[in-house]
Amino acid sequence: MKTIITILFAKLIRKKNKKWISNPVQWQVKTFDNLISSASDTRFGKDHAFSQITSYDDFKKKVPVRDYEALKPYIDKVVAGEKNILWPGKPLYFAKTSGTTSGAKYIPITKESIKTHVKSARDALLNYFLKTKNYKPINGKHMFLQGSPKLQKKNGVYLGRLSGISAHYVPKLFLKNRKPSWSTNCIDDWEKKVDKIIEETVGEKMTIIAGIPSWVQMYFEKIVSKEKKTISEVFPQLSLYVYGGVSYEPYRSTFDKLFGKQIDTLATFPASEGFFGYQDVFSEDQTDLLLLLNNDIFYEFIKAKDFLKGDYERISLKDVELNVNYLLIISTSAGLWAYNIGDTVKFTSKEPYRIVVSGRIKHFLSAFGEHVISEEVEKAMKTATTNHGVTIREFTVAPNINPGKGLPRHEWYVEFETIPDDISSFSATLEKEMISQNIYYKDLIHGNIIQQLDVVHVKKGGFNNYMKSVGRLGGQNKVPRLSNDRIIADKLNNFNS
Q1: Per-residue pLDDT tens over the stretch 448-465
Q2: For residue 491, how many C-alpha atoms fall within 13 Å in the half-sphere facing its CB?
Q3: 219 and 75 within one domain
Q4: CA spacing 20 to 30 A to 428: which of 20, 38, 161, 255?
């Protein structure tokens, strides 16, 4: 019965979603008008003359691009309990995330915006069921490796991690399918929590597992070590792994080995600021994401290369080009206006609009003017691991501006699952791929400004130990792929072999 209800509902949702998928630009115009109208009487709306905005050009003139630091004076008022600041009334939640210069960040989530988070996660799964005809997971146990659902209150507004907030919105139809138990999900110590989750899931009919790859990998490896079996042997009904937040490619070979057989994957693009996309087509060579235009989000885009030069020229959806690296700018029903979330995307299709996440604008490496982005180092690593038949657990790249000897260089801190037979050859493959992808890097190498990259071997468990040392083990926390300084690299040197 549950399967029939799910299929019927999925078909209804698919029909409904075709309306905005078929009319993307018109839907964005509608979203823009609704957002401006809804927030006209807020403090932000009055400060920026929303009542006089009748076009996108008006909006660009009156509302500058802001990141969290620039929007913080308004957010501070919301956090202090004031109403009608960024959006009518008060938010339902603050999603607490790690900040940069301001410490913790408090991202507002309103009664309107929380619905879009829940709807998008639901639609991603329903679309998967319809497209693949794989309905078996519906009746099994489902587990999302997430943060604690325990929420605090700050001036009358609930506060917690987005993944913990989302735990309060599991559809009633699937409450009995959920793993782990509520009490286990509330354990704060990540390592103890994973051990308890293993106790509650091994032996269960697990069919869907979701979470950030690095932390799911930790969960899987503990199971494999304890049970002396592959994950598919421990969970024979498991047929879907759902991930988001980072690229899956660096983890794919390790997960294939842990799974022990082919398992479907579903890519998503959730963030505290909004749910932006999910994989809508399933094939070996296609993992790009359908850009969600039904989420009360108005999208703008700035060419990443221009932004890094200080040029903030914005365009709307109708003017984007394929295969251009754009910084993603959003305005939402949570009261974020022309907000720079820091993620970069590339469009792979305009019928419908599909994207790949290419990295973080703050996570780039340009210590020598090379402008290396996450997408480039991940592609290089994928080629190197494939060509050399090795698997990795984690990696990050940092500059070494003043080495003890020789020219400056990039250092790739890599935690290997299987170590290359010839590390020099492995490094050479990385170097060749970086030169082929990035003209600035190529010029620096050929001009003898920097020397060939160096691979620094981090001992097994090193990245987890590093994350634990900085209080970011587990949950939705991720290791940056790139840094312009050596803060992470110097700490990782404590874990070198």
Answers
A1: 888 999 999 999 888 888
A2: 15
A3: yes
A4: 255
